[in-house]
Design brief:
The structure is a homodimer of 274-residue chains.
Chain A: E1 3-14, H1 16-24, E2 36-42, E3 64-70, H2 78-85, E4 89-97, E5 113-117, E6 120-127, H3 148-163, H4 170-184, E7 191-195, E8 200-202, E9 209-213, E10 219-221, E11 228-230, E12 241-245, E13 256-257, E14 264-267, E15 270-271
Helix pairs in contact in A: 1-2, 3-4
Amino acid sequence: MCQLLGMNCNTPTDVTFSFRGFAQRGGRTDQHADGWGIAFFEGQDPAGHAAPTDPADPAFGDKGLRHFVDHQPACDSPVAELIRRYPIKSRNVISHIRKATQGQVALENCHPFVRELWGRYWVFAHNGDLKNFAPRLHASFRPVGSTDSERAFCWIMQELAKSHASLPSVPELTLTLRELAAQIAPHGVFNFLLGNGQALWAPASPQLHYVERRHPFAHARLADEDLSINFADHAGQNDRVAVVVTAPLTTNEIWTALAPGELKVFVNGALGDA
Amino acid sequence: MCQLLGMNCNTPTDVTFSFRGFAQRGGRTDQHADGWGIAFFEGQDPAGHAAPTDPADPAFGDKGLRHFVDHQPACDSPVAELIRRYPIKSRNVISHIRKATQGQVALENCHPFVRELWGRYWVFAHNGDLKNFAPRLHASFRPVGSTDSERAFCWIMQELAKSHASLPSVPELTLTLRELAAQIAPHGVFNFLLGNGQALWAPASPQLHYVERRHPFAHARLADEDLSINFADHAGQNDRVAVVVTAPLTTNEIWTALAPGELKVFVNGALGDA
């Protein structure tokens, strides 16, 4: 199974610590050596001054995107080394380490995938196999590679585009995405992370775990590498960070398994309502 | 004015040498310090074995894409440093160094821009200002940032999508792109580079220069840095590389200014017919 990592924050935060442990699973502490990728949303104002914090505001969220993919194992990749060393600060990050089960090992099959809709970039990473899921793609989103995951993403983008004339609010998007996720779920394991620079969406699934970090911050110790960090040294009192992963990254924090049910949304560093 | 760099080859080639000199213009030898970007197409088989070489073959070209953008000056950027050191091999590369004249300095305004159409990624970088060019965008391509360049790219994608039901051959694409470029040209300086992993398109403009490197390969000396290379040590006898830039990168090669006229296409490392 592939590995997913998502981070959603209320203030730009670097993912260096979490990515360190996560990247070890790409060929070193786990068998996911068929490529990897990471996407960071970045706003116009990295300091976060005066950025709208209300998800109902159309200007809410970050529009810039950095997207890195590599078909080398994450533990050996020079690009992954850059990410580990260079603290890119972001409020929304999605990363994926691939164990190829469908589609060959090739750059165009590395998650996360990116498309543009309504003048925003959308980022999608998926973990699991879909069976008999061959939706008709009649609109303007087509897979470039050969994975079922990218096909499912194109279908989600197509159906989102049909459901709204322009970018709706985050709560409205969540309602639509719940309906779409429910249509795909019967076809197999459909753990995914979807982000648009405003929020991070994840299906409720016991295979995904999350932690919410907020004041008072504590020490955390990586499960995959001998490294610990005291977040209190790095975070401000009002900072909130939510991290969603396939398997918990740290050994001394309380990770909650998402209970089966509806799709969840993380906004401003916390699990959203409902 | 911004700076453009495009490379089109018949075999995967690293752009390290050309990028070294080019990146110096991002804040060191020239005033283009408002961000930069580079995109590399990569095929499923980096060695190029058995890949179709006929541009009329629908499987021709590379589908994978690496896309790096940064709003830090290219001469200081850790990401640019990675590109200088890590020899990514590609048959199609487009890079851009930005001097902001429209749109603020922000990640979402950094070229090149990427969109997907017909299951291929399309990459676009532009140099110059467009005046009174506000085409109606009624289809599914919308700018994320605030530059005229991205708007023009979205319009080109929209019109391409209207002109063909699926991916046409490279010669057919060239005919359509000529018609589209001619519609934008009256609005101002429209030097651009467009690639889809099959070919590199550039408008005929005296502000763009190209060199074709082929056997017998010779020494080249960078104009912007004290560095020279003997391509004969690195290239095979059948290798062909075309490089297109705003201003010549080397001092001892013969760079040809593209004569004003029709849009040009580079395929398999050489200027295409007509």
